[in-house]
Amino acid sequence: MEPDYNNNYHNSYQSEFKPNGFDDLHLDDEVYEIKSDRINPEDFYQHSQKKRYSEVSLRNMPVVLIIILANLLAGIMCIIAGSDHFETGGLNYQYIHNNKEYIRLLTYMFLHANLPHFINNMVALYLFGSRLEPRVGSLRTAIIYFGSGLASGLVSVYVSHLINPDVIRFAAGASGAIFGVMCATLFTNFSSKTDSNKTTVIVSIALIVVYALISNGANVDILGHLGGGIAGGILVFILYHDSLDGAFSGTVSTLLAVILTLIICFIGVTRAGIGTKASAMQDSRIDTVKEQQIFQDESITFGQCLDNKCTDPEWTIFSSADNKKVVEFNGKVVYNNMNSSLKIQFTYDEAISYWTINYMGLNGTAMDSNGAALLLNYLCRDYLN
């Protein structure tokens, strides 16, 4: 009779190599067999990822949640305090380009015209942001949102001015940034292994079209929307790669995104001029004129000369009949042994990016260029070399 090798091995295993806690384990117990020939790894990956992305949770979208809360806070502040927030924090070519108020490229994203405008934007941000952030990560989402908002603002300001240079307009709202999030989400729907099905893509496109129709109106910034959407598509195309997952995933990346978003939102809300009347604001264009040099080879400025050599100096700014901003100075001066009223008006020359004297007069009488030069030399005599 030949030895039973299988039985000996079985007994040896049970006596010598049986792990603790496996006393009831018998090697001859029934084995569960896989019914299919093999498991498709791609099917398993798609199933797990679909389950993951289908679970919308606030903890998976901290950046989107912070942005929504910041916009809500800004809206409540506008209602309570009341303000000319479109003028104090909205997009405007004259303020941004001429006045160098670049902070408006951020503050405008937190201001809305009315309650429907706010609700439409925040609902759209939630619908698309809740899909985008769990997929690409919080840091990518923050870059896409604020990058799209910045691009939207630049397009709105400069392209609109090129088309209608004589129109003074203000714009505000998060629509441009949200269009960037929408286009980024649509891009990931096409490229993701989990959402490349026709249904998801069609639904995404339909929601974008509906949002565009709802927000369509006479005051809608179409150019800004296009700029934000294109920027969002470009940014997600650059950032959404497997090779970058290490830099944009994990706790550290999420924490960095949350901190940066909180800082940006704090600056955007607090610098928007909420609760401030536009008429009460010190227009920094006046400061720009004051800081300009009077003579090319001398350091003396208009502010230094006029404020020190004239009595009762007063600076104001207003819009002319042709919608140009005018900075005006009024003061008293002793000239040719006479007490006279001096008026100087400055207008911005875009060709040279400089505020130039458009009018200068004494006691209501305009002076020619030679007379104006003589008076300025007289006022600046103590500062000239």
What descriptive keywords fit this protein?
serine-type endopeptidase activity, 2 domains, alpha+beta, 385 residues, Rhomboid family intramembrane serine protease, hydrolase, 16 helices, Rhomboid-like fold
Can you walk through the features of this model?
With 385 residues, the protein is an alpha+beta fold. It has 2 domains: 63-280, Up-down Bundle (Rhomboid-like fold), CATH 1.20.1540.10; 284-379, no CATH class. The chain is 55% helix and 11% strand. It has helices at residues 5-16, 41-54, 62-81, 85-89, 93-98, 104-107, 115-136, 138-163, 175-191, 198-214, 222-239, 245-248, 251-270, 284-291, 302-309, 369-379; strands at 311-319, 325-335, 338-349, 354-362, 365-366. A 5-stranded antiparallel β-sheet has the order 1-2-3-4-5. A hairpin with a 2-residue loop joins strand 4 (354-362) and strand 5. Helix 7 packs antiparallel against helix 10. The protein starts with a helix and ends in a 6-residue tail after the last helix.
Tell me the fraction of residues in β-strands, as a range: 5-15%
> How would you sum up the global shape?
elongated
Identify low-pLDDT runs: 12-18, 25-39, 43-54
Query: Structural class, please?
Result: alpha+beta
Q: How many domains is the backbone divided into?
A: 2
Mean pLDDT: 80
> What level of helicity do the residues show?
55-70%
Q: What is the CA-atom radius of gyration, in angstroms? A: 33 Å
Number of helices: 16
